[in-house]
Design brief:
38% of the residues lie in helices and 12% in strands. It is α/β, with parallel strands linked by helices and 477 residues long. The strands form three sheets. An eight-stranded parallel beta barrel has the order 1-2-3-4-5-7-10-11, surrounded by five helices. The two termini are 17 Å apart. Bound molecules: 6-O-phosphono-beta-D-glucopyranose.
Length: 477
């Protein structure tokens, strides 16, 4: 049985919904210079906004202007909470101002008040792939230690302003994406750095992660000092990694491949660097900028819960090699398709039992509360002749994942706070910038070529999910 206060809801992120990229004094963010892509064509990061190029985050689904109606729809589904992020560049447009932008703060005041008026608790990520562009271009992104203080200023400003409205926070969205240091997009979105322009991308990844760990730990401490009722989690992309076969070489490889997640949760949940990481740093001969003061901060600022996204599992085979430099579904050069699973059109393998595996594994490793803050399936959809959208595939997907989630709670004893389907309203895809990769219970009539009325349409899954929430997950239809 799920707890009575189980947080059913949905998840979105500022840059993927808000649009209005220049409104209310907002500065440019790293997302504002990312062009549109597809599953085969990677998004490009441009130095400036190029005339004639398409930048899907500039308008997104115009949530900045439509949030009142959209939140009403979430309320109709019975959402207990909504996860979104605060666009850092709305609050500190350049990132290094000493005073925040009041208009940006006021926007989120009203957004959170609107949610609360519908009985929806805001769950907030501080940095969701949208750091101010100025920090990336002038400071060199997270390669620069100065970003720690700038982030902590931003975090503290938000905690002080919203502590009586927001109880659950996360610091860096999918902080571990940058582990894919052969892929420029992930360095850019996590840290404002193009790996291909660094001397040693792997070293840069570890150094930037360290500064973020310190910034995150300081933010956790600041939140607790401002209001002990606030809890702060880490947020990682948790993809289960399986060995392809029982060859011990595959098993060891799968174990190592999980470092792409565990390295980040180990430091943030335990407050120390794991032995395997220290051994790796020594083997590489790196002298990373990690001070004794930093290590003390990491120990004190451990997170209150593990927040994670789950979309797929991956499988590794020691004698296979894949090109991962632009892949959005695979981060390890030994990854292969799992013959037991099917995949979405974007190559993401559908594996509900993998979600249980992740929940069990985190629980056994940390014994901390967990929060599934993203899960979902991207589908190409169009309204049928009657104007409705019959998304049975999405209902099947969630039914299977929620079933496994409930087994993890009932049979494995996992302490689970909530479940938040990603993109509960159609939005701009992060990896490809497409709108046609639709995740929502609510269809948005807007297309990649800019056409569409923006009208919102309830899909069939809308009523299905409302009933799931109503029965606290007892009846999955
Ligand atoms: C996670 C991100 O990677 O997965 C979201 O936190 C993202 O921002 C989601 O949108 C799904 O990925 P995509 O590429 O399908 O949008």
């Amino acid at each position: 049985m799920l707890r009575n206060d189980f947080l059913w809801g949905g998840a979105i992120a500022a840059h993927q919904v808000e649009g209005a990229y220049r409104a209310g004094g907002k500065g440019l963010s790293v997302a504002d210079v990312m062009t549109a892509g597809t599953v085969d064509v990677p998004r490009r990061v441009t130095d400036d906004i190029e005339a004639g190029e398409s930048y899907p985050n500039h308008d997104a689904i115009d949530f900045y202007h439509t949030y009142k109606g959209d939140i009403e729809l979430f309320g109709e589904m019975g959402f207990k909470c909504l996860r979104t992020s605060i666009a850092w560049s709305r609050i500190f447009p350049e990132g290094d101002e000493t005073e925040p932008n009041e208009e940006g703060l006021a926007f989120y005041d009203d957004l959170f008040d609107t949610m609360l008026a519908h009985g929806i608790k805001p769950v907030v990520t501080l940095s969701h792939f949208e750091m101010p562009l100025h920090l990336a271009q002038t400071y060199g992104g997270w390669e620069n230690r100065e970003l720690i203080d700038l982030f902590v200023r931003f975090a503290t400003t938000c905690f002080e302003r919203y502590h009586d409205k927001v109880a659950h926070w996360m610091t860096f969205n999918e902080i571990n994406n940058q582990y894919s240091y052969t892929n420029d997009m992930f360095g850019w979105t996590c840290s404002g750095v193009l790996f291909s322009r660094t001397d040693d991308p792997e070293r840069a990844m570890y150094q930037m992660s360290h500064y973020q760990f310190v910034a995150s730990a300081k933010a956790v401490m600041a939140a607790h000092a401002i209001d002990p009722d606030m809890s702060v989690g880490c947020m990682v992309a948790a993809d289960a990694v399986y060995p392809y076969g029982c060859d011990p070489a595959d098993v060891l490889l799968a174990n190592d491949a999980m470092h792409s997640t565990f390295f980040f949760t180990d430091v943030q949940a335990r407050g120390t660097y794991p032995h395997y990481a220290l051994a790796h740093f020594a083997r590489r001969g790196w002298d990373l900028d990690i001070t004794d003061d930093d290590l003390a901060v990491l120990e004190q600022g451990t997170v209150d819960y593990i927040g994670f996204s789950y979309y797929m599992s991956n499988t590794v085979r020691h004698d296979a090699t894949a090109d991962v430099s632009t892949s959005t579904s695979c981060s390890n050069e030994h990854m292969v398709a799992n013959p037991n699973l099917t995949a979405t059109e974007w190559g993401w393998q559908i594996d509900p039992e993998g979600l249980r595996w992740v929940l069990k594994t985190f629980d056994e490793r940390y014994q901390l509360p967990q929060f599934i803050v993203e899960n979902g399936i991207g589908i190409i959809e169009r309204p049928d002749a009657d104007g409705g959208i019959d998304d049975e595939e999405r209902i099947e997907f969630f039914r299977a994942h929620i079933t496994q989630m409930e087994k993890a709670v009932d049979e494995d004893g996992v302490d689970l706070m909530g479940f938040l389907p990603w993109g509960c309203i159609d939005l701009v895809s992060f990896t490809t910038g497409e709108l046609r990769k639709r995740y929502g219970f609510i269809y948005v009539d807007r297309n990649d070529d800019g056409s569409g009325t923006g009208r919102r349409i309830r899909k069939r899954s809308f009523d299905w999910y409302r009933h799931v929430i109503e029965t606290n997950g007892e009846d999955l239809g």
